[in-house]
């Protein structure tokens, strides 16, 4: 199996590539691509780590070589936020990056699973979907927006709040990946009933966590290391599904699983052909229902922005 990371010289790209080189099963291939000319060197650097994952870095016109025969394409190419910016401020630049990378992916490895990390995720996935559709190769079960960082943040903050060991709590996060569209389903965290105030404070922390990192990095980018950990967990789940492992379940932002909006994040089963069944996230409290209703106009607008970028270019 072959995994390709696009944007591999960046903060997320380098860290997630390191995790993949260290942890993928023996025999896997890892291809790295970035417009930064250092990328072949990053490949050489990683190749000195003693695991049986073959790694090679590409740049310039070699994107097709990086994508050739790929089963999973991870996209973290594009610009990141600075303090004072919203994720939607990245739209203009990053939509062009996603359009061009996905167009090449559609031509070279149309059957791959495409996992989009680049922000704003809520709009970049619709951009990718429309490009794949135009190329006649769109398979909604193989296109994912990676919302896993919200899940690991929720699991970390909730475990800390409950004084439980890290990694012992599971939290589903539904909706999308920006502001109020990030909705952790606190009412379904097993073994504990939060008061409305406790749940609201935790939800606020999870929704604001990206901005917390952007502000703390003070103009030097956004979350990279926790994103790499989240990205690795998600890519690994996609790979385990492709290898026909049973019971692989994670949250992701996909088309076709929800009545709320064209794209929506929720837990799903992953299998040999990508995701194949969305799973219920349990009954919501009145407050959660209200939050879900309140997010939908924003989520739908952000989806439309992505669609229009391809369908109604200026
Ligand atoms: P970064 O600036 O460190 O790296 C981005 C990389 O993309 C750079 O190496 C750059 O050369 C490369 N790049 C730009 N245009 C390219 C192109 N056309 N083809 C190939 N490579 C290209 O940024 P980062 O911190 O790694 O973040 C990357 C993206 O991920 C940002 O949009 C950021 O907002 C997003 N992000 C998403 C999540 C999430 O939860 N989904 C979390 C954190 C960051
Ligand atoms: C995050 O949640 O950390 C990412 O989406 C990056 C950002 O801009 O906040």
Automatic annotation (TrEMBL):
It is an enzyme of class 1 (oxidoreductase). The keyword NAD applies. Its EC number is 1.1.1.37. Residues 147-309 form the Lactate/malate dehydrogenase C-terminal domain. The active site is at residue 177. The keyword Lipid biosynthesis does not apply. Gene3D superfamilies: Lactate dehydrogenase/glycoside hydrolase, family 4, C-terminal, NAD(P)-binding Rossmann-like Domain. Belongs to the LDH/MDH superfamily. MDH type 1 family. Catalyzes the reversible oxidation of malate to oxaloacetate. This is Malate dehydrogenase. It comes from Tolumonas osonensis. The lineage of its organism: Bacteria, Pseudomonadati, Pseudomonadota, Gammaproteobacteria, Aeromonadales.
